[in-house]
Amino acid sequence: MKTVTVYQAKAHLSSLLNEVEAGGEIVVTRHGRPVARIQGVGAPRRPRQAGAWRSSGAWEGFVYDHAVFAALTEAELEAEGWNG
User: Fold this and answer.
1) Is the Cβ–Cβ distance between 30 and 4 less than 8 Å?
2) Which H or E run includes 21?
3) Number of H helices, E strands in the chain
4) Could you identify which of 2, 7, 59, 82 might form a hypothetical disulfide with 77, taking C-beta atoms 3.0 to 4.6 angstroms apart as the criterion?
5) Is 19 helix (H, G, I), strand (E, B) or coil?
6) Sheet harboring 25-30: ordered strands across?
7) Does the pTM of the predicted model rise above 0.70?
8) What CA–CA distance (Å, rounded) separates 57 from 41?
């Protein structure tokens, strides 16, 4: 793992990115202390496809409870500390 200062990183960013693309990893330091790590992002992600979860079974058994979004009563608001 290569270590460079902030000044070096600013001056040589393009060549550092080439190193990272080739599989390297770089630590950027400020006043001798590490502050950042530059590493490759890996293989590009597959684009998302609309409706993919529906066919995967991820939502199977999911029950939507409308009460979660219902307004609170005055008593519930007061119990929560919203004295209005």
Assistant:
1) no
2) helix 13-21
3) 4, 3
4) 82
5) helix
6) 2-5, 25-30, 33-39
7) no
8) 29
Helix, strand, coil: what percent of the chain each, to 5? 35, 20, 45
- What domains are defined for the chain? 2-39 (3.40.1620.10)
- In the chain, what is the straight-line distance between the N-terminal and C-terminal CA atoms, in Å? 57
Question: What residue ranges in the chain does DSSP mark as E strands?
Answer: 2-5, 25-30, 33-39
Residue listed under structure tokens 């608001």 = 77
CA 14-18-24 angle, to 5 degrees, is: 125
Strands 25-30, 33-39: pairing kind: antiparallel
Whether 2 contacts 23, CB under 8 Å: no
